[in-house]
Amino acid sequence: MRATAALYVALVLxxxxxxxxxxxxxxxxxSNGQADQWVARTGPGEYQIEIxxxxxxxxxxxxxxxxxxxxxxxxxRNFNGKVDxxxxxxxxxxxxxxxxxxFDGRPEMVKTFxxxxxxxxxxxxxxxxxxxxVREYYDNSGHLTRREVRGQQDRGASSH
Length: 160
Description:
Blueprint: H1 2-23, E1 24-29, E2 35-43, E3 46-51, E4 61-66, E5 69-75, E6 85-90, E7 93-99, E8 109-113, E9 119-124, E10 134-138, E11 144-149, E12 152-155
Antiparallel strand pairs: 1-2, 2-3, 3-4, 4-5, 5-6, 6-7, 7-8, 8-9, 9-10, 10-11, 11-12
């Protein structure tokens, strides 16, 4: 019985690794031989580089490229297998970040950046009900200029 179970597990792992091998290619290994970086073609002119940053064999950082330009980075900052930070880029400049800082699978904050990369707006949903409760506006030098709270509006940086 034990040998049958071990054989079944080995078969499942072999089939799983064969499936992955068709969609992504190992491009780097640690000194112990364990793969820690893969490349996967995701569409015409688009590919992803997946990186295992903590040595558990699973990607924790996924960079998506379109026409050889990075357009998105997905991060698993607490190594639980779920993306909790998404950063989007346009022409090499960060334009948007979506944060799940309590790692529950629901975003609490979205940051929007100007074309020059400076922070423009922060939207917060601290209650995680799927709607923005707080919206903050920033000037070109990164200073808070206005803060709106659902149901009220504060003007000026003194409201933070």
